[in-house]
Amino acid sequence: MNAPEPSDPVSYGVRAANLLEEACRLAPGSANAPQLEVVRVLALDIGRQLDALAGLTREEVTPDVLAEAALCCADLANLAACNAPDLPPDAAPHAAEAARLAAGAVGALGPMVEAGSGDPGTEHAGNLLRDMRSAAWRAGFAARLVEGPSGKGPSD
User: Fold this and answer.
1) Is 47 in contact with 147 (CB distance < 8 Å)?
2) 95 and 23 Cβ atoms separated by less than 8 Å
3) How far is 153 from 71, CA to CA, in rounded Å?
4) Per-domain residue ranges for the chain?
5) Are 109 and 7 in contact (CB under 8 A)?
């Protein structure tokens, strides 16, 4: 079996950004419209960053690039999870799915960074691995937030 292309998990992050942007766009008359507009713009910005990373050639993809993508996806997962409760019931599932998808991307990127980071005793590799642990923790937290105590999403 072939290893997944680095762009695959990054493209999941792009999809998550699009889902969150769409969820915020579905809530123009919401009482939280100004806040959700900021979230929408942030999701677009993160999506553009991830799209640029997904477009890199295989030779351009380094563990640093993958770690950057994971950090972006973790930010996106948290942005989606923290704002899902403020969305109308028809839009909240999009944000919850965005959080889960972004968290999954982080999970897929982690082993790729670990495999390519080199000697974990070096400062650079140690920093990359710390970044990945941080991204994984934050993305996992976001995924747990949207699952809630019942194991279902906020509006399931």
Assistant:
1) no
2) yes
3) 23
4) 7-147
5) no
Angle among Cα 19, 107, 98 to the nearest 5 degrees reads: 10
Nearest Cα neighbor of 139 from 6, 34, 9 is: 9
In whole angstroms, what is the distance from residue 121 CA to residue 89 CA? 48
Which CATH topology does 7-147 take?
Four Helix Bundle (Hemerythrin (Met), subunit A) (1.20.120)
* Closest-CA residue to 71 (of 143, 129, 148): 129
d(CA 1, CA 59): 21
Helix axes 7-25, 33-54, angle to 10 degrees: 160
pTM to 2 decimal places? 0.88
**Residue-level pLDDT, tens digit, the chain, 156 residues:** 344 455 589 999 999 999 999 999 887 777 788 899 999 999 999 999 999 999 999 899 999 999 999 999 999 999 999 999 999 899 999 999 999 999 999 999 999 999 998 888 899 999 999 999 999 999 999 999 998 765 454 444
